[in-house]
Design a protein that fits this description.
2 copies of one chain form a homodimer.
Chain A: E1 10-23, E2 26-33, E3 43-44, E4 47-49, H1 57-69, E5 77-84, E6 95-103, E7 119-123, H2 124-129, H3 136-153, E8 164-165, H4 167-178, H5 184-193, E9 198-200, E10 216-218
Parallel strand pairs in A: 1-6
Antiparallel strand pairs in A: 1-2, 1-4, 2-3, 2-7, 5-6, 8-10, 9-10
The structure holds a DNA duplex (30 and 30 nucleotides).
DNA sequence: TGAGTTTCCGTCAACATGACGGATAGTGGG
DNA sequence: CCCACTATCCGTCATGTTGACGGAAACTCA
């Protein structure tokens, strides 16, 4: 607010993306191998600097996402996660990064193209264990907790599913993201009873082996009421 | 990620604060009257640009808060709300602002000093109705919804209270922030039963008129379990 | 046709919630 | 000194939600 002999400091603004999906019965995150210093060769979140001083932040996130994964909209869920600005998080210069959380269904792996190097899916557990560029481990941990938490009181879980899905598939999303088993019957009762969560797609089925399951489409609700709580054992809270 | 003839664009980074408290039986927010263009004379959130290109973002938020309100730690709750970066949110140049949500007990109004102009408490309802600088109305709306939501599943409400408080005072916080009445007995049962929410301060009382109430101190828990839900009628979800 | 598999439904005890009434413990006035 | 007044605190009960389980229904494959 002071307007004296002082000038507004300039900062480099980046966007990073924590792109989550469920593949091969695992929660996986999209990572790229860095081709340039710093952290050359290390795994990192896809992302990059604003294309211009006037580019909108969320637009930049969508652009990076499209560049890295080749997909735009669809069943895509994109929300701002948090901004990270530790002064020494980038050894080159001051960079603050606005991070986004994206959730996708398990697509036919369009991951390939993109501007940076090879992008690949990595199980989040492995990602959190292995060394990562910058403060990306912290970011992934935050994204994971945000996702787990939002499954409780929003309909975010449907963003992991294709356009049409069964209750069992939805339950698998919860079980995989939370890392715990759920009672199939109670889960079925809750999600089919929750207002606006699931819309029965006319009448259809799909085969798995046993009795055909009803197919659902995601409903208009974004909040889940009543909430679907995990047993116990959480972490922080956005902080 | 492209590393060609392109240079990283510079952006001005600001921090803004949504400082909430409960005063005079109302939820109020700290606003300043702008003394400079743009939006001279309009009400705005306290905040400002980073002091230097290396200042930490949260440090900057604490600095601005101290400058405007004269207080540092205490019962202070400070968390990042969201980053706003619409390209035309500031008519002068590209500015993105990292916003923080602060919650304070009703202090003896240390508001006065500060670098910018006069700061004053404004009922959030009035703040949302009246004209505000920049996109601050949107920010306040987000801060309000975040606060209301966090009262449900965290112990944030205690941040509105002084070090020692009664159950009735805590209930008033919920009622004022949510704008709805709560059953005193059920509320009492829930909060005193919730693990780690309230710690009875030895044995003390305070007078109000009737039977002396037990005094409590905030407990170690940050998450509330089970949650304390408002009746119905919410808004978005962080989006 | 029967075994195997998976979805779907019903029930019941345990727990939490919403709604009351009433006992308790102070204050202040006559 | 006693009595109205007020606010806190406690107990109960009907209702709704959760957790746990068994079993019927529907389809495939041998």
């Amino acid at each position: 607010m002071t307007e004296e002999e002082w000038t507004i400091p300039d900062v480099a603004v980046a966007v990073d993306l924590a792109v989550l999906t469920v593949r091969a019965e695992q929660l996986q995150i999209l990572l790229v191998e860095r081709g340039i210093e710093p952290f050359r060769g290390a795994l990192a979140l896809p992302g990059g600097f604003l294309a211009s001083a006037l580019e909108d932040i969320e637009k930049a996130a969508r652009r990076e996402l499209a560049e890295e994964t080749g997909l735009a909209a669809d069943g895509l869920h994109l929300e701002q996660l948090r901004t990270y600005g530790n002064p020494d998080r980038d050894p080159r210069r001051r960079v603050i990064t606005v991070c986004y959380l994206a959730v996708l269904p398990n697509l036919p792996v369009p991951v390939a193209g993109g501007d940076a190097d090879e992008a690949r899916w990595v199980p989040v557990e492995a990602a959190l264990a292995g060394p990562l560029a910058f403060d990306h481990a912290r970011i992934i941990a935050d994204a994971l907790e945000r996702t787990r938490s939002k499954l409780e009181y929003t309909t975010l879980a449907t963003a992991f599913c294709p356009a049409e899905f069964t209750v069992t598939e939805l339950r698998r999303v919860y079980e995989i993201v939370w890392g715990e088993q759920l009672e199939p019957r109670n889960f079925h009762r809750k999600v089919t009873g929750a207002e606006g969560f699931l819309v029965p797609t006319g009448e259809k089925t799909i085969r798995n082996g046993g009795r055909p399951a009803l197919l659902y489409r995601r409903g208009p609700a974004t909040l889940l009421h009543p909430a679907l709580l995990r047993s116990r054992g959480s972490l922080e809270v956005t902080a």
